[in-house]
Amino acid sequence: MRLSVLDQSVACAGRGQDAAIRQTVALAEHCERFGYARFWLSEHHSLPTIVGTAPEVLMAAIAARTARIRIGSAGVMLPHYSAFKVAEQFRVLDALAPGRIDLGVGRAPGADHRTSLLLNPDPRAADHFPQQVRELHAWVMGEDLPEGHAGRGIHAHPRAATAPQLWMLGSSGYGAQLAGHFGMPYSFAHFITDGEGCADALELYRHMFRPGLVERPLANVCVWALAADSEEEAWRLFASRERARVDRQTGRFGPLLPPEEAARPYTEAEEAFRRNLRSRAMVGTGEQVVQKLRALAESLEIEELVVITWTWDAQAQRRSYELIAQAAGLPAA
């Protein structure tokens, strides 16, 4: 089983949001030492919980501090931007870290409607997503666009012997179908849906797949997991994430709370959601978590899982990735 990392630069109560950005860079260095294959970064806007707003900037900082691990966006919310500008940014990143850059793109806004309109005033921007993906691929790979296209003869620089690997991200059947149609690698956001629709999306992707960017279906799944030195400690740390997930159901967003401050009275519906969340959670010792991860990978017939972990304590987050890597037998540097 191949393991990778997704980090979202989560804000934590009692610390400045800028600390979350620096902790993400430190975490990337840590995960490289413990043998993870990729380190991906998400994009969200005007959200007090997740403050990673510019993955391409963070990727440059991480590229300067690492030597082996692949670095990627998970992802760039393409409808907000010019595909040509995104291609240029990622060609620069590939020049900084040749052959180590993943360009994950998604259609979701990663923001509320008002914020989305500030990023791109066109309310129908997402309708052009498939065309943007085609353009982005051509510019990233140094291929020309079709006759009659306004961008024909225009090239994204710097050009080199390597190029970013394009990924389609999704949490529904739409992205799966598009990834299959274009022959792209596909990543399903299991942590967003708590697994709902994951198996169906992967099946749809494989069914729709035709050779394109890759010759055969290539998929991974982003899943939430947390390990600690004891099962009791892992569940204690999980209280911060648990509170954030329950709050999100009713539109409450804020910095991640310490475990000791996370408890609050829940309504009957919230309590039912909390119990369901716990029953599915990949929480425990390193060995327990890896056992659950392996079972998921086998059931979905995939070779790679991308692990996302939220903890209020940055050291606990780093320890979680360390324990999972050791239990999985990853090749530490």
UniProtKB/TrEMBL annotation:
Domain of life where this protein originates: Bacteria
Start and end residues of each Luciferase-like domain: 1-299
SUPFAM superfamilies membership: Bacterial luciferase-like (SSF51679)
Family to which this protein belongs: To bacterial alkanal monooxygenase alpha and beta chains.
NCBIfam families xref list: oxido_grp_1
Protein name, UniProt field: LLM class flavin-dependent oxidoreductase
